[in-house]
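YM 10:42: Thiaminase II sequence, as discussed on the call
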Amino acid sequence: MILTPFTQGIYGRLRQQAGSDWDAYVNHPFVRQLASGTLPPQAFRRYLTQDYLFLIHFARSYGLLVSKLRSPDDMRVAAASLNAILTELPLHVSYCAGWGLSEAAMAAEPEAPETMNYTRYVLDTGHAGDALDLLAALLPCVAGYAEIGLGLLHDPATNLVDNPYAPWIRNYGDQGYLTGVNAAIELLETVWRQRGGEARFSQLSEIFTNATRLEAAFWQMGLKAAAEETR
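YM 10:58: structure's back
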């Protein structure tokens, strides 16, 4: 299921331009195994740990975004996203505890190369470019997770009965999360109207697609950890 906001405007164009890379991200084997409940627990624990570290850098990226915006209204939207991430961290920690992962253990875990590659790419894009560049790097994660969550929730093949990953799926299809996603997409549209133009589309598409590939690599990191543990 693909909702209209995901296919319209500049976000819809960037998503479409990402093509097979976008499909490889939102339909990654990690995602399909989440839906069926067959994902190895080791893969999910690795993902959760690295996602904790990822969220810290993602919050920094939104702090940088606030500094690159000019209008108070736009700054408030970005600040709301920053606050949502900081609010999500304790919830993430609480959820991870159910998988046997403490915050201290996650904080002490070295960042995986996939985590460093992704988070530093987003931050470097933001430091080198403007708010529009940074938003293009942020949106594959923000809106991609909503598309994944909604898609799985509305897919009859998804197991939501005895699936240990059902709470994760429901979280990213939740209306509260979707409200934040819609605000992020609208902010992208606003900044595109302010600072965009067709001459910028190619560069923005490259940023968006690079971030999409890094998202898929993040999923693959979890599967790789499970494979290594079973050797």
